[in-house]
Specification:
The protein is α+β, with helices and mostly antiparallel strands. It contains 3 helices and 5 strands; from the N terminus they run ααβββαββ. The protein is globular, with a radius of gyration of 20 Å. 20% of the residues are buried.
Length: 153
């Protein structure tokens, strides 16, 4: 028995939709996020809700380019805000604020410049600010928002 194009199309239409493939932060399709990656994602979602409740508009999440990344990009009125979210449940290696090193700030700046030159080009002339949201636990009560935590210089 031969299968016609029509039969094939009907069979595919009857198939249930395939779920979106799982993609870990590593970018590998099918990989499950590690527990640390899952906690990081939860911290970013908590920070986004916290900032939105305080009037910031969330534009983008997890912007990555070669050599850099920004957790959240927001608008605070006419100011573009690049936000680094840090969760530290233990002070064993220093607190959340201490974990934003000069190298990390450079990676955030690189991603901010990359975004402003591409997807965010309409904001290129807007004032920019670099904030940090620090968390000691995945709890609203443990959020410390630092507007202007560091500058681009």
């Amino acid at each position: 028995m031969t299968t016609t194009k029509r039969d094939t199309r009907a069979r595919h239409m009857a198939d249930p939709p395939h779920p979106e493939p799982v993609r870990a932060a590593s970018g590998i399709v099918g990989a499950r996020p590690t527990p640390a990656q899952a906690r990081g994602r939860q911290a970013e979602e908590l920070a986004a809700r916290h900032l939105a409740a305080r009037g910031l508009q969330i534009i983008e999440c997890n912007v990555r380019c070669r050599g850099g990344e920004v957790d959240l990009i927001c608008l605070d009125r006419a100011t573009v805000v690049f936000v680094e979210v840090r969760l530290r449940t233990s002070a064993r290696f220093g607190g959340a604020a201490e974990s934003i090193t000069a190298a990390k700030r450079q990676r955030i700046l690189l991603a901010a410049q990359w975004w402003l030159g591409g997807a965010g080009r309409r904001y290129r002339t807007a004032p920019c600010r670099f904030d940090a949201v620090l968390l000691d636990a995945l709890d609203d009560a443990c959020i410390n928002w630092l507007p202007g935590a560091f500058d681009a210089g």
